[in-house]
């Protein structure tokens, strides 16, 4: 380790630069996120419970802050831009989930629906560079009924699709939206 920077292999094999110790602002952000989750999910706002939440959030932040926000090269302003672009993607994703549910309902209830079912594995390469963007893509594909991400090897995705129509839905639009949110330099506009 030189000058507080270490390099290691990321989840998908890419070398990742990590700053150690994590910047204080990142630790504070992680602490706030964990504390907010504690308060929201516990629903208890007495002094004892808030104090316990602060203590637990502090301990978890201390132990795991190097695991979150692995790529610390982005500034807080860039992270805020990502957060501001995220709602539009989530609305689009929810709409895709509704459409996929309607399609699967049609397959299940229509007399000729089962004839359309032809499971297949679809392989495609992604242009996304960061582990997190690839993770979001994999989870988004799996959240969409009719498709499941089976395997990721480098930039290659293997996805199980229930039919040709579900496989054709892997046309890159989801990848474009994720790139728009997390890696605008890869693709400027969602497809």
Report helical residue fraction: 40-55%
Q: What is the number of helical segments per DSSP (H or I, 4+ residues)?
A: 7
Give a short account of the largest sheet.
3 strands, antiparallel
Content of β-strand: 15-25%
Radius of gyration of CA atoms, rounded to a whole number: 20 Å
Please state the overall shape, judged from the principal axes of the Cα atoms. Answer: globular
Structural summary, described in words:
There is one protein chain. With 191 residues, this protein is α+β, with helices and mostly antiparallel strands. The protein has 2 domains: 60 residues, no CATH class; 107 residues, no CATH class. 54% of the residues lie in helices and 18% in strands. The chain is built from 7 helices and 5 strands. Strands 3-5-4 form a 3-stranded antiparallel sheet. Strands 1-2 form a two-stranded antiparallel sheet. The longest helix has 34 residues. It is globular.
In terms of topology, how is this protein built?
Elements: E1 5-9, E2 15-19, H1 24-42, H2 47-64, H3 76-109, H4 113-116, E3 117-125, H5 131-143, E4 147-153, E5 156-163, H6 164-168, H7 173-182
Antiparallel strand pairs: 1-2, 3-5, 4-5
Helix pairs in contact: 1-2, 3-7, 5-7
């Amino acid at each position: 380790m030189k000058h507080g920077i270490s390099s290691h292999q990321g989840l998908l094999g890419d070398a990742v630069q990590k700053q150690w110790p994590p910047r204080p602002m990142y630790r504070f952000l992680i602490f706030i996120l964990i504390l907010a989750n504690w308060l929201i999910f516990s629903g208890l706002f007495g002094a004892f419970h808030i104090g316990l939440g602060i203590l637990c959030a502090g301990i978890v932040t201390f132990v795991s802050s190097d695991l979150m926000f692995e790529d610390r090269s982005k500034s807080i302003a860039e992270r805020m831009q990502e957060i501001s672009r995220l709602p539009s993607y989530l609305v689009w994703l929810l709409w895709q989930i509704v459409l996929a549910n309607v399609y699967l309902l049609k397959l299940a209830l229509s007399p000729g629906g089962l004839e359309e079912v032809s499971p297949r594995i679809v392989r495609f390469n992604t242009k996304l560079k960061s582990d997190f963007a690839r993770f979001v893509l994999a989870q988004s594909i799996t959240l969409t009924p009719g498709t499941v991400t089976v395997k990721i090897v480098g930039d290659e995705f293997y996805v199980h699709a229930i039919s040709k129509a579900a496989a054709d839905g892997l046309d890159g639009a989801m990848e474009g939206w994720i790139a728009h949110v997390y890696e605008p330099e890869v693709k400027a506009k969602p497809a």
